[in-house]
Amino acid sequence: MDLLAFAIERYNYWIFITLMMMGLFIVIGRGNLIKKMIGLNVFQTSVFIYYISIGKIAGGTAPIYLPEDLKARMAHGGGPAPLPGKDAIGAGAIRVDESLHGGAGFAGNDLQSLAGKAAPPEGAALHSAPEGAANDILAAPPLTIEDHAGAAGAAADLAKAAAEIVYSNPLPHVLILTAIVVGIATTAVGLALIVRIREAYGTIEEDELEAADDIAEFGYVPSKRGLPEQRAGA
Amino acid sequence: MTQFLAQLPVLPIIIPLIAAPLTMLLPARALKGRIPYLFATLVSWIAFAASAAILHSVATAGPISYHMGDFAPPIGIEYRIDLANALVLTLVSGVAALAFPFSYASIRAEIDDHQLSMFYAMALIAMVGLLGVVITGDAFNVFVFVEISSLSTYALVALGARRDRRALTASFNYLVMGTIGATFFVIGLGLLYQATGTLNMADLKIQLAGRDNPMVEAGFAFILVGMGLKAAMFPMHLWMPNAYAHAPSAVAVFLAATSTKVAVYVIIRFTYTVIGADFDFAGAAFEYLIAPLAVMGMFFASIVAIFQDNLKRMLAYSSVGQIGYMLLGISFGTEQGLAASLVHLFNHGLMKGALFMAAAAVAFRVGSETCDGFRGLARRMPWTAAAFIIAALSLVGVPGTIGFISKWQLLSAAFDSGRAWAGFLIVASSLLSVIYMGRVVELMTLAPAPAAGAAVREAPLSMLVPMAILVAANIYFGLSTELTVDLAERAATSLMGAAR
Lengths: 234, 500
Description:
Chain A is mainly alpha-helical. In chain A, 62% of the residues lie in helices and 0% in strands. In chain B, 64% of the residues are buried. Chains A and B meet through α2, α3 and α9 of A and α6 and α7 of B.
């Protein structure tokens, strides 16, 4: 049962592996060049999904997004109040899990905009993260902001609420945006090539292309996979 | 001036990258297409000068770390240049600096005039991609640059379609295989990133220390297979002979001399700088998987090369075998073996570049790419024939040429690490290269020239001069090993040192 639970918990990887294998099979198994391109796309998309899923934390939100109730509380609390001090934010306002690597800067910025301050925080907590699963972040006890002397209570509450927001790691998503662009470019070049192949050969079936090349080079089709009429002709 | 020098590491990337779209805007038809040609040549020379300056700086003052946009390394992108990259960087930009001036006559004969601006823009982008792969210290950056160079390479290969429509299918197959390879590489990076949370190579090394788990092993395996595809490692080489044979000749010159070498460099970089030699897994992969495949590639590809009629395809198969030498050198797992691999990587770029240049010159004047076109060439195109013969001797490994230096290094590395069998196999496969190169040399020198082709003249100066420089390099580095062997040994020491 443990093994089953282990396998089911990692369902995102199963999706990734299944899609990847399907894509690779289409690329290898199909003779039609367009279908090959589609297979290549499925294959690449599986990798995109893999990257997106490793950055995602259950319940996590985008590092630029504030939940509605927090916004309402902000408006209610009489607009942006100054936060106690920027050291509080830099030092430990945001928990940094290892999967949240690089996220501290974003989250910190968000807090700052919330509080109306401009000074950028330092990503001091990077690499100090412990080893552990990404989802642990939910189970961990919420961290509080150190309350420096003289801080307004409302502002501290607000910052506390903001600190409890769990962010997904944006870096894999950014990486995969790059890879998506590359994938689109590859598809475009591939389809353009297919158009040219169609113009030059009059077909986009791999077997027929091979047969046409063989006939051009040897005058006959050495393999038996050529077209029936060409075999008859040779 | 110091301000300028501080930006030196980024210059070989940024200048061609900005110049490429500008090249596209230059008029292709005016002055017989000389404007984009001269501009691209100038840019490639600037890139070479910057690379040579980087090599000099690294050799005298140690590794350079350049922070892109002044963001500190683990988060920001770092360009990290030690001797290993500097050597490959100089090879790539040096071959480019010769291939660009070489290309003019050949490319004008092989593609339509209105495509010239586009051609030179794409060639510059292909060069930028390869230089970027070599120079960067960020693992994901490697993927981006690999795809930048690959995408433009697919288009460059397809340009051969005016002469032979098979260039289109060759390019399509290359695209499919290349994309699978690059995607495998990305999967590997994803696994490493998931294990460590970083993409900076030096930082990956620190984070990975002592974490020999299946995830890291799978990541390394994906990276090895992905880059093996790009490097045309033996069982994954099928895209290469067709792509090189049907690409425009000048494109084949540049690609054959650089692109697979860069992929081999990435394998070296990930094995030593990222994964590290203390991973038993990496060592076992090289000992039991890569080494046998390398040996099989050395023999299989050389035997196939013997039976090729198309000269460029024969040279491409020979490249598959030569990649086998490099991987075999790495698989020894010793400093000497790694140094021998780096030397051979550099030297093979020089000799294959010269051989493909000679083939391009013959294709330009004789109009034939088959071995028959070489019949009696020594009398009709003596300089080209001489260049081809010297480069062929170098490929075989005759003393006084660079081929001898790298084979010698490989042999001594093999015997010193107790792998006498590898030494004998290297010699045996070199004998095969005597057969396939000797066959062409015999046709050139001894066979009578066909009577019909009496009008064939020597190649134009724009082709002969770069060819002569490359052949001179073949001899110079064969006599004076100061630059190549010493630097490669120091590079290997630092790679191995960093790995421990």
